[in-house]
């Protein structure tokens, strides 16, 4: 009888462990990921859970590694999809080195080394997204995007001035 009870408790323990979380995330990691999905900062999450922001960052980093995500936002999205049963398990066989279609097109049009350099230059002169959402950009990326915005604004203003002066000269 004791043997049957021990088997039953083993089965119940196994079920509870498998239902516990995808990829064995701790309850603390789950709580942090849920708050990240609501766009809270580490400081806000720390206040909510009663832990330090450093602990929040450590939990999120561990969860990010377990979920094989690039950022904490990506990890929160993956965890949210797992909780809603949108995906069964993470993509095990997908490599992180897959090309995007934009890179493939630009590299096929130009020689190999030149295509990569061209893609890198294009990535630096992209127009930044507009919106008030939180981001995970470094100070360097913010500076580069601000300089891009200033550069493109100057180009647009110069174009407007040239068009207006040409129009005024045409009518004189």
Summarize the structure.
By secondary structure, the chain is mainly α. It has helices spanning 2-20, 27-37, 42-49, 53-66, 72-83, 101-109, 112-124, 139-171. It is elongated and about 75 Å long.
Describe the structure.
The chain is mostly helical and 172 residues long. The chain has three domains: 2-83, Winged helix-like DNA-binding domain superfamily/Winged helix DNA-binding domain (Arc Repressor Mutant, subunit A); 99-128; 135-172. 69% of the residues lie in helices and 0% in strands. It has eight helices and no strands. The protein has helices at 2-20, 27-37, 42-49, 53-66, 72-83, 101-109, 112-124, 139-171. Helix 2 crosses helix 5 (72-83). The longest helix is centred in the C-terminal third of the chain and has 33 residues, at 139-171. The protein is elongated. The relative contact order is 0.06. The model is unreliable at 1-21 and 103-108 (pLDDT under 50).
């Amino acid at each position: 009888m004791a043997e049957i009870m021990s088997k039953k408790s083993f089965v119940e323990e196994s079920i509870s462990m498998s239902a516990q979380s995808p990829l064995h995330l701790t309850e603390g990691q789950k709580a942090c990921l849920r708050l990240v999905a609501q766009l809270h900062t580490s400081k806000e999450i720390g206040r909510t859970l009663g832990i330090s922001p450093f602990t929040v960052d450590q939990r999120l980093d561990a969860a990010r590694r377990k979920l094989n995500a690039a950022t904490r936002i990506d990890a929160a999205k993956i965890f949210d999809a797992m909780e809603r049963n949108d995906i069964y398990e993470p993509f095990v066989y997908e490599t992180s080195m897959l090309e995007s279609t934009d890179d493939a097109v630009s590299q096929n049009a130009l020689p190999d080394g030149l295509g990569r350099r061209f893609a890198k230059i294009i990535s630096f002169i992209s127009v930044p997204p507009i919106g008030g959402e939180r981001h995970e950009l470094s100070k360097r990326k913010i500076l580069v995007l601000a300089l891009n915005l200033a550069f493109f604004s100057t180009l647009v203003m110069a174009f407007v001035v040239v068009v207006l002066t040409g129009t005024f000269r045409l009518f004189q």
